[in-house]
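REVIEWER CHECKLIST
Item 1: Sequence provided? yes
Item 2: Single chain? yes
Item 3: Sequence as submitted:
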Amino acid sequence: MTKAELIEKVHATSGTPKAIVERVLDGLRGVMETEFKDGGELSLPGVGKFSVKNQAERKGRNPKTGAEITIPAGRRVAFSASKSLKDIVNAG
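Item 4: Structure as written out by the authors:
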């Protein structure tokens, strides 16, 4: 789903004007950027929790050549779905 499609669906289900939905989504992105830069986490009730995890340096393979490479350590965003979201997905 694209951002435009998301805005349209939220507008259709909530009746909130599209311009306001777009500003809220942009604001949410800004909050996430700030929180994740500091290594924090963000919980969305009924959806799940986003958090920053440290990824250790590891070995990998170049899929084209098969040569072994070292993948540097870094940080990544992890998502853990809430129970209610898991139930929705597994229902059908």
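Item 5: Key structural point noted by reviewer: The helical segments are 3-14, 18-37, 83-91.
Item 6: Recommendation: ____
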